[in-house]
Amino acid sequence: MQKRYHQQLFSVLIPALEDPEPRVHSHAAAALINFCEGVEHDTLVPYLDSIVQRLLRLLNPTGDGSQVHGYVQEQAITTLAMVADASESTFAKHYLVIMPLLLNVLRNAENAKREHQRLRVKAMECAGLIGSYPLSLSLDHTHDRL
Prior knowledge:
Elements (H helix, E strand, L loop, with lengths): L1 H15 L5 H15 L4 H19 L10 H18 L7 H16 L6 H14 L4 H11 L1
């Protein structure tokens, strides 16, 4: 299914991550997890940057932390972890952007109530998965941006 219908599915799911309704964000991210499970690396890679860019906006939509919904953050982090796993070492180029955001989520959730415990766990899990790819790969891409 992934190989045959990837264009149709990604053309619907990726824009849904920008829908005005937070619940749509969460459901679209969950659908991406289901779709990316077992997807071939070469099928996912052309969509990787677009997916990551939108998921990062869900982690911190306004840049100042306001209007962030915990359930959307949890789903975005879980989806980032799944996309990282499915795209393998290709995901390493996003390390230097994503890791500070995950650390920020950990810092902010640490000072929050117990209800954010799941968010911290998801952020740690994602950081561990993303960190499993060689850092040298992501550092190679840093020179391209400088």
